[in-house]
Design brief:
5'-nucleotidase SurE, metal ion binding, single chain, cytoplasm, two-stranded antiparallel sheet, Stationary-phase Survival Protein Sure Homolog, Chain: A, globular, 6 helices
Length: 261
């Protein structure tokens, strides 16, 4: 199996090293793992592509490249510049430091990388590690993902639903904020919503007196609706959510047609 991996935390992020180990186990001894990751952190860029500017790409080692672009850019670079002899069989994005559950899905560059792979017709999985009081210590942060990542990916490959739809199905996986031996199992649930946890801004003055705004996130320890992604994570489960890039509110089509046509 040929696997392409990327992330949004950057080529030197510890979560990428965890994903390399996961991908190597999934690919097997005769497989290949290719890395095309952002040269610098790209958290929060979503599905952005660098449509109006070129990006430099550098080979750092065998099958290892850094690109000055977003995770979606890196997937495009991997498919159309780096792996031109044969497309990958699977694209993995992550492991993100911090959860990409609930509303974070809409902002996440980790999700953006997997989404671009799906739009390119490839199986894709985004992986993120929820952080909390039980695993915030540096030595424990990625322990759950490292211990359960390969089994989760293999379970999706073996028993997950995969299709060839125009907006192809891809998966969002979030590992719970607990040590590896406290993970209760795997559950499938929808994207949730954290009430009263939206992004905002915080103004600061620079030493020169200029006014700047920092984007500030909301509380991440708020549970979502029972059975949805963040709630499952906070209860100790690996949360798996099937996603599509299609943003149509299909449940409203008939009603809006009746009102407007």
């Amino acid at each position: 199996m040929r696997i392409l991996i990327t992330n949004d935390d950057g080529i030197n992020a510890p979560g990428l090293a965890v994903l390399e180990a996961i991908a190597a186990e999934v690919a097997g001894p005769t497989g290949e793992v290719w890395v095309v990751a952002p040269a610098f952190e790209q958290s929060g860029v979503g599905h952005m592509i660098s449509y109006t500017r070129p990006m430099m790409i550098a080979e750092l080692g065998p099958r290892r490249f850094a690109a000055e672009g977003s995770p979606a850019d890196c997937v495009l670079a991997g498919l159309y510049d780096v792996m031109t002899e044969a497309r990958p069989d699977l694209v993995l994005s992550g492991v993100n430091r911090g959860n990409n559950a609930a509303e974070n899905v809409l902002y996440s560059g980790t999700i953006g990388g997997a989404m671009e792979a799906a739009l390119q017709g490839l199986p894709a999985i985004a992986l993120s590690q929820y952080l909390g009081p039980l695993n915030y210590d540096e030595d424990l942060q990625f322990a759950a993902a490292a211990a359960h990542g390969a089994a989760t990916v293999n379970a999706l490959l073996d028993r997950g639903s995969w299709d060839g739809a125009d907006y192809r199905l891809f998966y969002n996986v979030n590992f719970p904020p607990v040590p590896a031996d406290q993970v209760k199992g795997l559950r499938v649930g929808p994207q949730g919503y954290r009430r009263d946890a939206s992004f905002g801004v915080e103004p600061h003055l620079s030493p020169s007196g200029r006014r700047f705004l920092w984007i500030r996130g909301g509380a991440q320890n708020l549970p979502t609706a029972p059975g949805s992604d963040a709630a499952l994570n906070l209860d100790g489960y690996i949360a798996v959510t099937p996603l599509r890039a299609d943003l149509t509110a299909h449940d409203c089509i008939a009603d809006v047609k009746a009102r407007l046509e």
